[in-house]
Write a structure and sequence with these properties.
The structure holds two protein chains of two kinds. Chain A is α+β, with helices and mostly antiparallel strands. Chain A has helices at residues 2-18, 22-33, 38-45, 54-79, 107-121, 135-138, 180-188, 229-244, 297-302, 319-327, 334-337, 340-343; strands spanning 125-126, 132-133, 173-174, 193-202, 214-224, 250-257, 260-269, 286-295, 311-318. The chains are: A alpha+beta, B alpha+beta.
């Protein structure tokens, strides 16, 4: 039986190859593959084969069937002049593709999502808070006293509230940083926690290529038992590495913020020149991108967290600044003009 | 602040390069933002943080270099050229002791006012000031050497024989040395003679008593003024000086008389004066408080294992007195009024030890969950943005503050608007009560730059006053505008309208908004017959349609602009995006197309409802293939082609079943709407 299969295989293949018209090929198909064809006949004879050989012979017939079908199909293509590898009609493949009609998220949104994504993977929760704030949340609770020069950097838009001069309790302002959300969060939650807070902030700055009266910040806060300055360094190293690239170097410089002690300004190695010195980093090799520090005990006092039991790290960064550095944007106004030719680039 | 490297070397002995010194300073928290070469000297521009008034001088910076670099520091000891003596017949009257706890002065007679000697003029120029005359230059020199502001009066221009430190009287004014007349208010502290104010304390002196070429006798003042009072005065007058800048940050009370004597001895040497009397009036100074510093706590905050001896060395180098070991008692020097707490000392230790020497240590992971409401909202907001972006809309971010004029263009009613008390310009007067002005402005910005294929959205807050509450609510705005380059807009068929409607339907579908309805409405801003309201159940939370031409005109936009604005908070609340699997159909579908001419007054919505009613459970879907109005159709009618998809859940439909449903629908449309089938 086995030998017979072999013979049939050789015979059929030569007949398929020899068929010179579609009609002739159809004849070959009928001879072997039709209901009364040779393969059907073989299936019928299968009953009389030794039981132990039966599976192997069955598979052999199946194999022939699929080979013949394949070969006949292939030969049919050849006979019809359609080889399957070339189209008969002329077609210019260099014509432009049809662009899918999709939009883009704003680069600010994208940057916020990317940065918060890094912190999310480190276990931080993304939190938001209101833009209209009280003086307490924006200043006092953050250890920024009235009539202190440290307020100079926090010039603030006030709302035109009733009895503005005489009723400071009811005064409302547009937050000048995202830090008031720290205060709100700490008032409502018990440590430990780690949060990042993206959002809009407002400062009465005259608008030019590098200043805007409205911009975005991302704030981070971790409070727990035994949180250290060394942990702060780790968190920001990790962020810089993941966001700017593995080789990014980070430098902490002492600085002053009313709401952290110790405080630091944090530089990353210039992402344009890799620290060699260029125009963007003023030849220093470093770009300042973050403010950070350990939560000042006075801040904990305002939100009734025991500074003996808990410590905290905090940091903040400007979203537009980071996007400008990363994407080489030289004018902050581009973010708010909403020119589609700008928006579609990212 | 400008600091001369040459000048610094008078106090700290260093042979290293200016760049190295700049590096030390930067890494000790005094960022050197600029290094300039200037006539043989190097000048640093240093950003001194507001907590460190002690560093607003060459000696202050020299002290920091000495601590950071372990270099010896040489203090300048200025001795008065004559022993102290009371000036007979002259008196200091401190009427307001609270705002002026310390006032001292010296009289210097027979001065020769002249140009400064070369070395002094050079020092003054090195930090970017113009030399004026020897007396003024000396007070400036001492200010930038020690950080303590002094003031010199022409003694002969003062009436009476007393210096009075008092609040200004109502209605008083003074012409200051910059030749500006300034109105004073009773909360401002002044230095006065018998008749009138002669200086705004700590801010600026008066012109009448200023040093001139003719000055013979001088009264030199050195005092401590309350920082808050000086700051308020300086801000109220809009006048910030080198002097007020230091007083409002807090000056060194241990340095008042030393600076006075330093200046007096220079005046005697340089201007050949006779040292006259010294006079002081002061409250008792509280001794500086002792601060406890626990070494284990310091290491716990920093994540370090510093030994007491290292900590002590750092603090001593910074001028602190330290007792004890693991629990330290620390007394700050008089110039470090900024360090009053343990936390402040920890920062000092970390700063001088070097932030770069504290090694990063992974924090134990604190995983935190968002509160449910916020989590739900943020997830839906993100879904909405994804849905809009995938339907071709680009996100914009526009200013939350807008001008009144912009709102006027939108025909916006005045009520409920939140005004900004201190806008910098007219562009920032009002908190936007709607996203539409911003997004329409963005459309106009694009069309005016030949960008005509515009689909925008903004999902952000609007602001309004509601029953005296200041509110902010997330809203969603969409804008759609389309025009071929250089051609007129061709949107007569309402494609833009349907495209925007489709985007909203897709958004609602993505978010799983239940019972979404879009119904005809009228609006102030949208064209009659081209506007619909967005509702869920009976609650309306938005609208969309074609912007009225007069509004579009006001923004400089020609042609049809389609816009929508939706209260996103409400939309999100009615959204239930959770999905459950629905079994896939098991049997094939069949379709029939129906074309007919029908009266204009019949709405598609009615036709659709009729087909569903007649076809019942066999109708799976109804598609509008085309709408046509025009030459081949009678006036007042339109032709519609509709495809009906038939499918049963239970079996393959037979030709007969499909045929009879199709026939019933055709005759229903014909009879109910008086339509003409084709």
């Amino acid at each position: 039986m086995k030998e017979r299969l072999k013979e049939i295989e050789i015979q059929a293949i030569s007949e398929i190859d020899a068929a010179s018209t579609q009609q002739a090929l159809e004849g070959v198909r009928t001879k072997y593959l039709s209901r009364k064809g040779i393969l059907s006949q073989l299936y019928k004879e299968l009953g009389s084969v030794d039981e132990q050989d039966r599976p192997a012979i069955g598979q052999g017939i199946n194999r022939l069937k699929s080979i013949f079908e394949q070969d006949i199909k292939q030969r049919m293509h050849e006979l019809s002049g359609d080889t399957g590898s070339t189209e008969s009609e002329a077609f210019d493949v260099t014509m432009p593709g049809l662009w899918p009609d999709i939009g883009k998220k704003h680069l600010i949104t994208r940057t916020i999502d990317d940065i918060c994504g890094v912190f999310s993977r480190m276990g931080f929760a993304i939190i938001e808070g209101p833009e209209i704030e009280t003086e307490f949340n924006n200043f006092e609770a953050l250890n920024i006293p009235l009539d202190h020069p440290s307020r100079d950097t926090f010039d603030t838009f006030y709302l035109n509230t009733e009895n503005f001069e005489t009723d400071p309790q009811k005064r409302r302002l547009l937050r000048s940083h995202t830090s008031p959300v720290q205060i709100r969060y700490m008032q409502a939650h018990k440590p430990p926690f780690s949060i990042v807070v993206p959002g809009k902030v407002f400062r009465p700055d005259a608008t030019d290529a590098s200043h805007s009266f409205m911009f975005h910040q991302i704030e981070g806060l971790v409070v727990g038992d035994g949180i250290t300055f060394a942990n702060l360094k780790w968190a920001l190293f990790e962020f810089a590495r993941q966001y700017f690239g593995e080789a990014t170097k980070v430098r902490f410089r002492p600085h002053f913020f009313p709401f952290t002690e110790p405080s630091a300004e944090v530089d990353v190695s210039c992402i344009i020149c890799q620290g060699q010195g260029c125009r963007v980093c003023s030849q220093s090799g470093w770009l300042e991108i973050l403010g950070a520090g350990m939560v000042d005990p006075n801040v904990f006092k305002k939100v009734n967290i025991d500074a003996e039991k808990y410590s905290g790290l905090a940091f903040g960064m400007g979203v537009e600044r980071i996007a400008m550095l990363r994407y080489g944007i030289d004018d902050i106004r581009l973010f708010y003009e909403n020119d589609l030719r700008f928006l579609r680039q990212f | 602040m400008k600091i001369s490297y040459g000048w610094l070397r008078d106090y700290v002995n260093t042979k290293v390069s200016p760049e190295t010194v700049a590096g030390w300073l930067t890494m000790a928290g005094h960022e050197v933002s600029l290094i300039e070469q200037k006539s043989g000297d190097t000048v640093f521009d240093i950003e001194v943080t507001p907590n460190r008034p002690d560093c607003l001088s060459h000696i202050g910076i020299a002290r920091e270099i000495s601590a950071a670099a372990r270099k010896p520091f040489r203090f300048v000891h200025a001795k008065p050229s004559r022993p102290r003596q009371e000036k007979k017949g002259f008196k200091i009257v401190r009427e307001n002791k609270l705002l002026c706890p310390f006032y001292s002065m010296r009289i210097l007679r027979d001065v020769k006012v002249s140009p400064s000697p070369k070395w002094l003029a050079k020092k003054i120029s090195s930090i970017g000031l113009n030399p004026i005359n020897n007396i003024v230059d000396i007070t400036n020199f001492v200010l930038f050497e020690t950080g303590h502001p002094l003031h010199a009066f022409d003694l002969d221009k003062l009436s009476g024989s007393e210096i009075i430190i008092r609040n200004a009287h109502a209605g008083e004014s003074i012409v200051t040395v910059d030749n500006v007349g300034r109105k004073l208010t009773p909360d401002m502290l002044v230095i006065a003679d018998r008749l009138k104010p002669v200086a705004i304390a700590g801010v600026m002196g008066g012109k009448d008593s200023a040093i001139t070429g003719q000055t013979k006798n001088i009264l030199l003042e050195s005092a401590y003024f309350n920082p808050i009072a000086i700051r308020r005065t300086s801000r109220a007058l809009g006048l910030s000086t080198d002097s007020s800048y230091r007083f409002e940050r807090g000056t060194d009370r241990g340095n008042i008389v030393a600076s006075l004597n330093r200046a007096a001895s220079l005046v005697c040497d340089i201007a050949k004066a006779d040292a006259g009397g010294f006079l002081e009036s002061a409250d008792r100074v509280q001794p500086p408080a002792v601060i406890s510093l626990r070494v284990p706590y310091l290491n716990k905050i920093l994540g370090t294992s510093l030994k007491p001896v290292e900590i002590r060395q750092i603090l001593v180098r910074l001028g602190y007195r330290v007792k004890g070991s693991s629990a330290m008692e620390v007394v700050p020097p008089s110039y470090r009024g900024d360090t009053t707490r343990e936390a402040d000392l920890i920062e000092e230790v970390a700063r001088i030890y070097g932030y770069d020497r504290i090694h990063a240590v992974p924090a134990s992971i604190i995983t935190t969950c968002q509160d449910d409401d916020l989590k739900d909202f943020l997830a839906k907001r993100n879904m909405a943005k994804e849905a809009l972006v995938s339907s071709g809309f680009n996100e914009v971010v526009s200013y939350s503050l807008v001008s009144k004029d912009l709102l006027k263009d939108m025909l916006w009613a005045d009520e409920g608007l939140i005004e900004i008390k201190n806008p910098l310009s007219k562009e920032q007067e009002i908190m936007r009560p709607s996203l539409l002005p911003g997004i329409i402005k963005a459309v106009a910005y694009n069309t005016s730059r030949q960008v005509y294929d515009i689909q925008l959205f903004e999902l952000s807050n609007i602001y309004f006053k509601d029953n005296k509450q200041y509110r902010e609510e997330p809203y969603l705005a969409l804008a759609l505008y389309s025009k071929e380059h250089g051609s007129n807009q061709k949107d007569i068929s309402g494609q833009g309208f349907l495209q925007l409607k489709g985007a909203i339907l897709n958004l609602a579908e993505t978010l799983g908004v239940k019972n979404l309805k879009l119904e005809k409405t009228t609006s102030n801003t949208l064209c009659e017959g081209r506007s619909i309201a967005v509702l869920s159940g009976s609650e309306m939370f938005g609208s969309m349609g074609r912007l009225k031409d007069n509004i579009a005109d006001a923004f400089g936009i020609t042609g049809s602009l389609f816009v929508a604005e939706i209260n996103f908070r409400q939309l999100a609340l009615s959204a239930h995006p959770e999905r459950y699997y629905k079994p896939l159909p098991r049997f094939p579908y069949a379709y029939r197309d129906i074309s007919f001419a029908i009266g204009d007054m019949v709405e598609y919505k009615e036709i659709e409802a009729l087909i569903k009613r007649i076809g019942s459970h066999l109708v799976e879907e109804i598609e509008l293939l085309s709408e046509y109005r025009g030459k081949q159709i009678e006036e007042g009618k339109r032709s519609l082609a509709i495809r009906i998809i038939f499918r049963s859940k239970d079996k393959t439909l037979t030709e007969e079943e499909i045929g009879s449903a199709d026939a019933a629908i055709r005759s229903g449309i014909e009879k109910t709407f008086n339509a003409v089938l084709r």
